[in-house]
């Protein structure tokens, strides 16, 4: 039986909790989230639980990373369901900071990585990654974890966060966890609740595109442009060109002319008012997923 996690609402209490755990010789794991939790988040918490003595999860809908105020206003908030999910996943502590706990009055600092943050998602969402980097650095400073867990679903985010931790020599180890998908292959996302059934069905072409690119890679196709053309062909049912669909170097996110195992096929497409993003590491397993009835 798991116990309800402790709830902390101030940065100072969080830091004290983390210091006390360390003093007991416990490794603290940290999972930053924006709430509206699903099985993808739960998988991060379970892995953190399996690998560390203490697990803290933050829920904070970070205004700095939303380039569209309407998107921030409608971001789903599901506090009670989140609390149940975290209890079942074995979280010890939930950090629920108000906005001025994360960014106190007078907070000025912004972090950015100019060469990385304007690419891919950053080209479509200006300022997004500066907001992510700033909040992640601030949350790591508050939680002081030995390890922090992130999902590969947001692949570009993991690249920038790793860079942040390396550049500032922060003591946290960054652990990247596989994408959790629905049975039909669609990557879980807090925003999927906004998909109409028809758009959800159309959205499956993203995962079909990733499966197709993996099959082609396994058959020996290595030309970046050919793999990219395949992605675009599979995305054609969307009716509009994707925001991007490309095979990139996993370190600097530059497009690959000749792909190798470990490179990442990344894509983003609009579906109605929503954008879906997904990715696949070439050479890794994906699918098979059942076809539509
Ligand atoms: P959020 O979208 O809530 O995601 C929190 C973490 O869960 C991220 O590391 C994300 O990659 C991971 N995640 C989301 N969907 C997943 C899935 N289907 N499978 C596996 N992991 C998944 O990402 C953020 O919040 C924010 O940018 C944050 C890092 C909290 C900074 O504000």
Task: Please give a structural write-up.
This protein has two domains: 172 residues, HUPs (Rossmann fold); 92 residues, Pantoate--beta-alanine Ligase, Chain: A,domain 2 (2-Layer Sandwich), CATH 3.30.1300.10. Helix 8 crosses helix 9 and helix 10 packs antiparallel against helix 11. The protein is of the alpha/beta class and 293 residues long. The site of pantoyl adenylate has 24 residues, from strand 2, helix 2, helix 8 and strand 5.
Keywords:
single chain, 293 residues, alpha/beta, Rossmann fold, Pantoate--beta-alanine Ligase, Chain: A,domain 2, 2 domains, six-stranded parallel sheet, three-stranded antiparallel sheet, 11 helices, globular, binds pantoyl adenylate
Strand content: 15-25%
The share of residues in helices is 40-55%
Q: How many DSSP E strands?
A: 9
> Which structural class do you get from the secondary structure elements?
alpha/beta
What compounds are bound to the protein?
pantoyl adenylate
From the coordinates shown, what is the CATH architecture of the largest domain?
3-Layer(aba) Sandwich
Number of helices: 11
Work out the count of structural domains.
2
Query: Which consecutive residue ranges, at least 5 long each, have pLDDT under 50?
Result: none
């Amino acid at each position: 039986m798991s116990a309800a996690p402790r709830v902390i609402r101030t940065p100072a209490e969080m830091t004290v909790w983390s210091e006390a755990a360390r003093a007991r010789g416990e490794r603290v794991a940290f999972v930053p989230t924006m709430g509206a939790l699903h099985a993808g988040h739960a998988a991060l918490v379970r892995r953190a639980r399996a690998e560390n003595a203490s697990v803290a999860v933050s829920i904070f809908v970070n205004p700095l990373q939303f380039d569209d105020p309407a998107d921030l206003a409608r971001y789903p908030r599901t506090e009670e369901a989140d609390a149940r999910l975290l209890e079942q996943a074995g979280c010890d502590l939930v950090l629920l900071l108000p906005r001025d706990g994360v960014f106190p009055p007078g907070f000025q600092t912004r972090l950015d990585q100019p060469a990385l943050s304007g690419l891919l998602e950053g080209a479509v969402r200006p300022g997004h990654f500066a907001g992510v980097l700033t909040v992640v650095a601030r949350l790591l400073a508050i939680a002081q974890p030995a390890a922090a867990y992130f999902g590969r679903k947001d692949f570009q985010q993991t690249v920038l966060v790793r860079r942040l931790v390396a550049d500032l020599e922060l003591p946290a180890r960054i652990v990247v966890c596989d994408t959790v998908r629905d049975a039909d292959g669609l990557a879980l996302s807090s925003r999927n609740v906004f998909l109409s059934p028809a758009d959800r069905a159309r959205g499956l072409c993203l995962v079909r595109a990733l499966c197709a690119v993996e099959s082609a890679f396994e058959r020996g196709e290595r030309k970046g442009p050919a793999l990219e053309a395949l992605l675009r062909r599979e995305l054609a049912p969307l009716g509009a060109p994707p925001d991007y669909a490309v095979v990139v170097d996993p370190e600097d996110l530059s497009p690959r002319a000749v792909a190798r195992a470990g490179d990442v096929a990344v894509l983003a497409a609009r579906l109605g008012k929503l954008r879906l993003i997904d990715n696949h590491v070439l050479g890794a397993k994906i699918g098979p997923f059942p076809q539509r009835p």
